[in-house]
Amino acid sequence: MTGVPHTRVVLVQPSHAGNVGSVARAMKVMGFTDLVLVQPRRRDVLDCEETTQRASGALDVLQHARVVADLGEALQGMDHVCATVMTPRDFGPPARAPREHFAALRQSPSGPSGVALVFGSERFGMRNDDVYRCHAALSIPTHPNYGSLNLAAAVQLVVYEWRQALGGFAVVPRTAPPEVADGQAVEGLVMHWAQALDALGFYDPAVPKKLLPRLHQMALKAQLAPSDVHVLRGVARAVHALAQRKKP
Fold first, then answer.
1. In what order do the strands lie in the sheet with 34-38?
2. Is residue 174 predicted with pLDDT exceeding 80?
3. pLDDT tens string 6-58
4. Positions of E strands within 63-202
5. CA-CA distance, 161 to 99, in Å (whole number)?
6. Burial code of 10-41, b = ≥16 C-beta within 10 A, e = fewer?
7. How many C-beta atoms surround the C-beta of residue 152 within 10 A?
8. Which terminus of the chain has fewer CB atoms gathered within 10 Å of its CB, N or C?
9. Is the dihedral of CA 110, 31, 143, 92 positive or negative?
């Protein structure tokens, strides 16, 4: 398949406003924005407080979402439709795992221009008649004894798999390498440690042996940041003060 098909998430008769908001969030983090609701239980679901709170920064997805009267209207312009089902239907398309199906779809020499991912209501799932209208049935692999997924969780899993099939997003590295404390800072830390250990009676400056070189090497190997040095010097300062107070 060449090019990236347009992706639409369709929720059929969603009953919980919070789930609609969470679906919008799940879509946005995977880079999808086309959301269509078919006969939601609440007509004001796109504007209610619970929905917008659960969207958590994906308000633009809600603002562009549409409410339609039937599944046929929701699927206009889509030439590949995937139902999501927990159990396969006798006369419906064969059930496949999302990863397996999406990989095959992307490898097809002539793929679709629009892909719709259809999810049923929280209470009843997808009706048989709606499944029969789809090209594929997606079944999320779950533990055999418990396969019930929250609507938003199911959407998140499916859109993640579809995004990975499309190429995924790179993990963004840190913009700059972590800052490492310089030699002078490490030297000051070791001297501070020596003072604290001397106050505790653990270190004898007259017979230093190898303790300070070892502490120095430990600090260098740790690649301490300047903030780490400040914390450890604060600990040494507190230890030194406590030891001094306890001396007769």
1. 66-68, 34-38, 6-12, 114-119, 80-84, 136-138, 95-96
2. no
3. 999 999 999 999 999 999 999 999 999 999 999 999 989 999 999 999 999 99
4. 66-68, 80-84, 95-96, 114-119, 136-138
5. 6
6. bbbbbbbbbbbbbbbbbbbebebbbbbbbbbe
7. 24
8. C
9. negative
* Residues contacting 50, CB < 8 A, separation 6+: 17, 18, 21
Take residue 190 and report the two structure tokens written for it: 């070791």
Distance CA 155, CA 158 (A): 5
Read off the pTM: 0.73
Question: Are 15 and 50 in a shared domain?
Answer: yes
Final residue of a domain: which of 136, 165, 194? 165
Query: Are 92 and 193 members of one domain?
Result: no
pLDDT in tens, 180-233: 889 898 888 888 888 888 888 887 777 767 888 888 898 889 889 999 989 999
